[in-house]
Input
Amino acid sequence: MRVLKIYKTLWLLLIAILLINGCTISNSPQQFTDFALGTIISITTYGNLSRTDTNVINDLFQYAHDVEMRMSTTVSDYTETEILNLNNNAGIQPVSLMPDTFRIIKDGIAYTRLTNGAFNIVIWPLSSVWDIKQLEQNNAIPSAHAIQTAQSRINVSDVIVDDARSTIFLTETGMGVDVGGIAKGWVADHIATMLSEAAVTPAIIDIGGNIRALGTKPNGERWKIGIQDPYSSHGETVGFVAVGDISIVTSGDYERFTEINGVHYHHIIDPVTGYPTANNLKSVTIITKDGTLADALSTAVYIMGLEVGYQFVRAQPHVEALFLTQDREIIVTPALKDMFHLTNDAFTVVEYQPRSQ
Ligand code: AMP
Ligand code: MG
Output
């Protein structure tokens, strides 16, 4: 945390020095970084940036901080946010919300329906009993009773949305919204829109591995976006996808986890079992234009597993996926075959084989 703060201060200092010198910042590409939403956010822009443009970038980082302050449900970090307040009013009364908080929850409800509840916007009772920091503190997993109780409180049909009043009512006591599975994609979309409006393009937005490639690369080539090697430290890749203006989002069991008695427990909860998802997948990458959709689907398709997830993705228009299995095999949907390039020989690309019925 402290290192990141120092890092941030250095960046702001660099920007300040360049501005004091009265010049436009003209080295290209340029990267700006900050820490928010529990991760590193970086914005890489190409071309000359004016003083106004650097203000735009600072505003965008500020937006990410605002979203975190209003929407976080990480009780170990926050005692009061707009969404924690909503959750505290479950079973009591409807709560009036700020426009973007209201909209992200509505999007979350739509994605819950689209994915038949694999992505579940009211997963909070379960995601909070599986809070990784708490597991580490207790060095124990939640009791079967706590899991069952939480699991009985995640019905999206128990949410009442009032568009006219911009209110949400979680009708059952103990319910709660968790936007952790879509917030990064949502913020990436917002940043992309703002950069486009300010004509600060092309650019690459990276929110802890949630990538948005915005516009066309200056030399006209495709962007090469690395896919994280889930078995190695951050930044090492299994290969890359060559893409245009698009979002690329990965979910996997290696992002946030702990080990208790030799068992790996991670942050993506299967609503059907009430436990961290256990299947043959290590990660799922979704490629589609909309970053919020990509984020919701990466979480959902990871939970669905290879069989159901592959068929699900094939049925979605303009959505492609890369599945990485625990056996270090990579399966891609047809349109990705020419776009994905393997660079790591610890992995193999294999054809999708539907399991015989
Ligand atoms: P991601 O890293 O995008 O896959 O999102 C993981 C985060 O989403 C977790 O840290 C939880 O906050 C939340 N989450 C966990 N399981 C689910 C689920 N089944 N549906 C929706 N959100 C979830
Ligand atoms: Mg997600």
